[in-house]
Design goal:
Elements: H1 6-12, E1 29-36, E2 45-48, H2 55-67, E3 75-83, H3 87-99, E4 103-111, H4 118-129, E5 134-136, H5 139-149, H6 163-178
Parallel strand pairs: 3-4, 4-5
Antiparallel strand pairs: 1-2, 1-3
Helix pairs in contact: 3-4
Amino acid sequence: TMKLQREIFYHQFGNQPRAPKPFHRRKTYLCYQLKPHEGPIKPPVCLQNKKKRHAEIRFIDNIRALLRLDRSQRFEITCYLTWSPCPTCAAELAVFVQDHPHIRLRLFASRLYFHWRWKHQEGLKLLHKSGIPVAVMRLREFEDCWSNFVDSQGEPFQPWNKLAQYSESITRRLQRILEVRSCPRHKDPASPRPATPLPSFNVP
């Protein structure tokens, strides 16, 4: 599969709130690599929306066709996306993982797609509940994506201005959508003594 050109990667995977000049519309790109627990790693693949088929659906079709011959092997797939999945694709990914318990799927998105819409928020929650980790791309993921899916011509990844700040902001937004809150495992030792238990009544 052809790797991404450097200019396309910087423009399409950029996590800036607004697309940088020349303001071309940012499209959906999905980059993935299939890693079996045993045997060689499959070549990297980059997909786009094609006609009316979203990149996520094309990804599912590719993996189903590839794994039709062997369901005994366990696989790990990491996907890098320019946009988080739409509600329809989120539902399809949830079904795909349910039908293929031998696959561990992880999603990293550069940006959240229509994150203010209720249906899109529900799609992200469905992925989370289905055991598909959804996270925001940070410097480490951008560098890994650059190394494996971009025709870099030997050039290192050059982070754009405020990359980390944008990633942090999008991460907070995703956490609010998923309603992930950190809860203490133990009670605060300085907390007051527990309330007196309710009296028990003997019922004849």
